[in-house]
Amino acid sequence: MSERNKVVALVAAAGRGRRMPGDIPKQFRMLSGKPVLWHTLSRLQEVERISRIIVIGHVSDARLHDEVIAHGGLSKVDGMVSGGAQRRESVLAGLRLTDATEEIILVHDGVRPCFSRALADRVIDAAVKGGAAIAAIGATDTVKIAKDGVIIETPDRDSVWQAQTPQAFRRDLLVRAFEMAPSVKATDESTLVEAMGHPVQLVEGELENVKITTEQDLHQIESQFARRAGVSGVGRVGGNLRVGQGYDVHRLVEGRKLILAGLEIPHPKGLLGHSDADVLTHSVIDALLGAAGMGDIGRLFPDTDAAYKDISSLLLLDQVRARLEASGARIINIDAVVIAQSPKLQPYISAMERALASHLAIQVDSISIKATTTEGLGFVGREEGIAAQAVASIVL
Ligand code: MG
């Protein structure tokens, strides 16, 4: 395909999700900590030849912005339009936001997050060549055509295919199909092009490319994501999942600030140490270094070195992040617990999570911080010190 073929993706995400229990439409259900629609858009974003993405949803639905776009990484999404009552009206609304310089229109379901980039490329290639192409998989079950509950035909199984998306069309062809087939009842765009008599090429689809319709579909895809995260390393080929732990204690004294995850927490006492004695950040650093096999905080930042005197531990965390990045490590998640008799830390938990996530450049849902007391027992219970423990998993 020539470099000049501009491809724009229209993503149908206006569904109300009536087939699933609960009020949350499928595109906003969470998968690995992010909405299904985010995953779909993110995958389209990775398809190099797609220059921009238009989302067809309920534009007034704040979740589109607050939960999907706000997760980041979707720079190609530059248009949004409200859908109609039927799919054809929705896609037509998206098509109207495209212009004639965009030669190929790729249509995709917002609730199909598991297609491969290669599949999108093959469908685009076939559309460039023949004008219209769709992903489809051969039927494995025998298909019956029935009327009023009685079979009227059993088509040859080899000739039966189940349509998926992505589907791609030359723009002029799709515009004409919408104009010429106003009365055709269509659950996909290919039907309109077929009605016009234009051949539509089948491209072998993917079994994993499930359209999330039921609760069971969501569970199936969740386990696919978990397998990918654990075995092949969230998209990195050959990565290994590794786990590290960190533990740290600092003494509580008068005349020092209490700093946890870089935040100053109001308290009559603070933690004593060479740096700012941010016990939580120290345990997270040790967990990350442990996972990467890079030693520990004392070896990297010795307390005999004046450079680290009173330093914000978040700056040390920045350095650890840079080391991890340089080695190709990718953080999967961090789970930490602060063990303190007082003060009550609950009001600060989410701010602490955001602070650490931002210094580590990870999503805030990849980090969890908890707080506990020791019921008055031991040095923590006597308020002589505060301890912190953390576990980190990375792919390296
Ligand atoms: Mg320490």
Give me some keywords for this one:
single chain, alpha/beta, Spore Coat Polysaccharide Biosynthesis Protein SpsA, Chain A, 60s Ribosomal Protein L30, Chain: A, seven-stranded mixed β-sheet, 12 helices, binds magnesium ion
Strand content: 25-35%
DSSP helix fraction: 25-40%
Largest sheet: 7 strands, mixed
The spatial strand order of the largest sheet comes to: 5-4-1-6-10-7-11
Question: What is the CATH superfamily label of the largest domain?
Answer: Spore Coat Polysaccharide Biosynthesis Protein SpsA, Chain A
CATH architectural category of the largest domain: Alpha-Beta Complex
What's the CATH topology label of the largest domain? Spore Coat Polysaccharide Biosynthesis Protein SpsA, Chain A
Tally of individual domains:
2
Separate helix tally: 12
Small molecules bound: magnesium ion
Roughly what is the average pLDDT, rounded to an integer? 90
* Coarse structural class: alpha/beta
Low-pLDDT regions: 231-238
CATH top level label of the largest domain? Alpha Beta
First-to-last CA distance: 36 Å
H and E order: EEEHEHEHEHEEEEHHEHEEEEHHHEHEHE
Radius of gyration: 27 Å
The shape, in one word, is elongated
**Count of beta strands:** 18
Q: Would you summarize the structure shown here?
A:
The protein has two domains: 227 residues, Spore Coat Polysaccharide Biosynthesis Protein SpsA, Chain A (Alpha-Beta Complex); 155 residues, 2-Layer Sandwich (60s Ribosomal Protein L30, Chain: A), CATH 3.30.1330. Helices cover 31% and strands 27% of the residues. It has twelve helices and 18 strands.
